[in-house]
Amino acid sequence: MSTAKVGIVMGSASDLPKLEKAIEVLKGFGVGCEVRIMSAHRTPEDVGQWAGSAATRGLKVLIAAAGGAAHLAGAVAARTTLPVIGIPVATEPFNGLDSLLATVQMPPGIPVATVAAGTWGAENAALLAVQMLALADAELAAKVAADRAKRADKARQADRELQGKGG
Questions:
Q1: HEC assignment per residue over the chain
Q2: 4, 86, 102, 138: which has the fewest Cβ within 10 Å?
Q3: What distance in Å separates the CA atoms of residue 5 and residue 54, rounded to the nearest whole number?
Q4: 89 within 8 A of 64, measured Cβ to Cβ
Q5: C-alpha angle with apex 93: 104 to 70, nearest 5 degrees?
Q6: Helix axis angle, 138-164 to 118-134, nearest 10°
Q7: Measuring CA to CA, which residue among 76, 98, 71, 89 is closest to residue 14?
Q8: Alpha-carbon distance 62 to 26, whole Å?
Q9: Is the peptide bond preceding residue 17 cis, with omega within 30 degrees of 0?
């Protein structure tokens, strides 16, 4: 069995640069991840097999990122009872609005947690996955708290710098 706890799937290779932040965040917390490229439309059988067997491979949370019709997160959620986090990827011609609407419009019983589109979404998806894992891992929970404190310190430092300039 793999040591990965989070599965990340994207609809195409062009999505990888947009998901690098999620991979970086998970690694920063010491959380292993399994990363795949599969399409809800071009390789639906592969998506179903991957999602359906995720728990047996030791995965605890799945992240799915897709643009356009953005059916990947829903296709993944339909094949597993693991939590699924959807990242709407901005694509042409609607700059991600279509992806966002497709990701958040899930029918009752097949939930997908949806985060912001773009790079913020990748970072937030990874952080949400870590928070979910931290529910059963005190060491990881402490890392989450430390990360939050670091982010607060950074914001306070920016304010101090502004105040120091007479702002």
A1: CCCCCEEEEECCHHHHHHHHHHHHHHHHCCCCEEEEECCCCCCHHHHHHHHHCCHHHCCCEEEEEEECCCCHHHHHHCCCCCCEEEEEECCCCCCCHHHHHHHHCCCCCCCCEECCCHHHHHHHHHHHHHHHHHCCCHHHHHHHHHHHHHHHHHHHHHHHHHHHCCC
A2: 138
A3: 9
A4: no
A5: 30
A6: 140
A7: 89
A8: 12
A9: no
pTM above 0.90, yes or no: yes
Take residue 155 and report the two structure tokens written for it.
């914001």
Residue 71, amino acid: H
Q: Which residues pair with 64 in a beta bridge?
A: 9, 86
pLDDT, tens digit, 9 for 90 and up, residues 51-73: 999 999 999 999 999 988 889 99
Tokens standing for residue 81: 């009872």
